[in-house]
Design a protein that fits this description.
With 480 residues, the chain is an alpha+beta fold. The chain has 12 helices and 23 strands. It folds into 3 domains: 224 residues, Rossmann fold (3-Layer(aba) Sandwich); 181 residues, Bira Bifunctional Protein, Domain 2 (BirA Bifunctional Protein, domain 2, 2-Layer Sandwich); 46 residues, no CATH class.
């Protein structure tokens, strides 16, 4: 535990902490999602069940926690969530860096006649303990963590003691959410088809939690939220290893990455990137030009019956790509924007906004089987006079690293994961309107128009026009 805080931990701090530990415990009753009530004695400095506990519990349904699920709770506090999991038949492991929380959870399991393995410790720098200390050496089907989210300002003037500080504040230089994403990506903590559920706050990593996970190569999707009167929003982020059974391939030269993924035996989520693409296809069969230093890749996002694809899917992919590039480049909305329906524009070295990336879907039929392919092209380190690049945004990356992040992003948007809702498109309309504000004004059939909204299908509703617009070639952007 790091007790350095904003000032050296001295005798006065020690006396204050002893006083905290001598306070009387509080008895609380917590209602699990199943309706069962647990009576718990919460010692001082141990985190009791609160609104964030209830939010996380709400997504831990019996369907997501079938019997014999290997469960790990990090930062178990009172043990409430682990008690719920044990009642559903999960094999429970839990940990907490507060020794009083460890004792508290053990006592509550004994009180209810349930079994669990409870460790002291948690993810953090190596000095705080290895994974085998706090999580054992096994792989888990479900990992949950109600992550601490108070900022360092909570430590000012002794608001919290060291025990509470460790449980409630995120002072990790990496960020606890980002550290967890990296653990999922680089270790066997999570099983091949396992899912981790973490709470995050809009006051911390909640603003860009999914993008942080994508950058580490981990799929992530927001599945629940709650808001408070002060404007803070808590979210539950589900994370998993993207398309665990799919192939991720690199080819120096190919005719078309779209054709390549169709040939991969119909394994959804398979992707191919190429350094050179000789006959790539753009919109309406146009040639997708191949530039040196560009990322060119395709994903098989559907293979089977039907054609589950609309213009809205291009917007979802484009909006997600904008968010990811902003995070990775640390550039704001004035330098990166979405041009409806499928282009990413970036601030070039000459100060102008120019196309830096494109999103394209193609549908291919083979007998009774229909394939939907998503193609992504991004200029990494070259743009020329007519285009911008990620390098213009100060983003130093490689096609290989970008492939990892984009693979996670695509899975987050389109992968079907048992018992998880599909990804929502919360900010698509906002990004479309923002793009118009930077690249417009917009003209339709020689008339200057205003956008009233974006249909779920992805088409544009224009003020004064009855029919929505879904053909990009019918629009003229004055700023492009």
């Amino acid at each position: 535990m790091d007790m350095s805080g904003p000032e050296t931990f001295g005798a006065a701090h020690a006396e204050a902490e002893i006083e905290r530990l001598q306070r009387t415990g509080t008895t609380v009753e917590w209602k699990a999602p199943t309706g069962e009530r647990f009576s718990m004695l919460i010692p001082p400095t141990v985190y009791p069940p609160r609104e964030d506990t209830d939010l996380l519990a709400s997504v831990l349904t019996p369907q997501r926690l079938p019997p014999k699920t290997q469960w790990l709770e990090i930062g178990c506090g009172s043990g409430a969530l682990s008690l719920h999991a044990a009642r559903l038949g999960c094999k429970v492991t839990a940990c907490d860096i507060n020794p009083l929380a460890v004792a508290c959870t053990r006592a509550h399991f004994a009180q209810n006649g349930l079994q669990a393995t409870i460790h002291e410790g948690g993810p953090g720098p190596l000095a705080d303990g290895t994974r085998s200390q706090w999580g054992g050496d096994q792989t888990y089907d479900v990992v949950v963590w109600n992550t601490p989210y108070l900022g360092a300002d909570a430590l000012v003037d002794g608001m919290l003691g060291p025990m509470e500080e460790a449980a409630l504040t995120d002072t990790d230089d990496t960020g606890l959410f980002g550290r967890m994403a990296r653990l999922i990506a680089t270790t066997s903590l999570l099983s091949k088809n396992g899912v981790a559920y973490l709470t995050v706050s809009s006051k911390g990593d909640g603003k860009h939690a999914c993008e942080l996970a994508w950058a580490e190569g981990v799929a992530a999707r927001c599945i629940a939220t709650t808001s408070f009167e002060d404007g803070e929003q808590l979210s539950v982020i589900a994370m998993w290893k993207p398309y665990a059974d799919a192939q991720v391939l690199h080819r120096p030269v190919t005719t078309s990455t779209n054709d390549d993924v169709v040939a991969l035996a119909g394994v959804v989520g398979s992707s191919v990137r190429a350094d050179v693409q000789t006959t790539g296809r753009g919109r309406r069969g146009r040639l997708w030009k191949s530039y040196a230093g560009a990322f060119m890749g395709s994903w098989l996002v559907h293979s089977g019956q039907g054609w589950p694809h609309t213009t809205g899917d291009q917007l979802r992919a484009g909006e997600a790509l904008v968010r990811l590039v902003r995070l990775m480049s640390e550039r704001g909305s004035a330098d990166v924007c979405l041009k409806w329906p499928n282009d990413l524009y970036a601030r070039a070295s000459d100060g102008a906004l120019k196309k830096a990336a494109g999103v394209l879907f193609e549908a291919v039929s083979q007998g009774d089987v229909h394939h939907v392919i998503l193609g992504l092209g991004l200029n990494i380190d070259t743009g020329g006079e007519s285009y911008a690049s990620l390098h213009d945004l100060g983003l130093e990356t490689t096609a290989e690293d970008l492939h990892v992040a984009l693979h996670a992003m695509v899975a987050s948007l389109f992968q079907q994961v048992d018992h998880l809702p599909q990804a929502a498109s919360v900010h698509v309309e906002q990004e479309v309107l923002h793009g118009v504000s930077l690249l417009g004004p917009l003209f339709y059939r020689t008339n200057k128009v205003l956008i009233e909204g974006v249909h779920p299908s992805g088409s544009l509703s224009l003020k004064g026009w009855d029919e929505p617009v879904d053909e990009p070639d019918e629009l003229t952007w004055l700023g492009v």
